[in-house]
Amino acid sequence: MDRPDYGKLLKDVREKRHWSQYTLAKLSGVTQATICSIETGKSTRINSKTRQKLAKAFKIPAEKLFPDPEDVLVIVRQNLDTRLKEYFKKYREPLNLDKLEDRTQFIKFLFQGRENVINA
What we know:
Order of helices and strands: HHHHHHH
CATH class of the largest domain: Mainly Alpha
Distance between the termini: 27 Å
Number of domains: 2
Structural class: mainly alpha
CATH topology of the largest domain: 434 Repressor (Amino-terminal Domain)
CATH superfamily of the largest domain: lambda repressor-like DNA-binding domains
Number of strands: 0
Number of helices: 7
Shape: elongated
């Protein structure tokens, strides 16, 4: 599985908060040069201490800011299983994915009340 673009993830979260690289550097204790290097893709490997510092500045868990692809798959599967159970409890009828209205209803149900970490 391909490695996520941590530079893009970092930049997206930083910009959503209207922070400059300088502001993030001051809040995290990570140099602006390192932040720039990560965001531009020059640094593709980020050590755990740097990940922790950056995540702490955003007040989000490091594994959400810098997800491991394998961990993401596990989390998606667990969430999908949970949501499927909730769906069946609510509607108490089989889900027919051949029917467009069932697919639409299920997709809406899956994403109901869910927000992306970037908007946090």
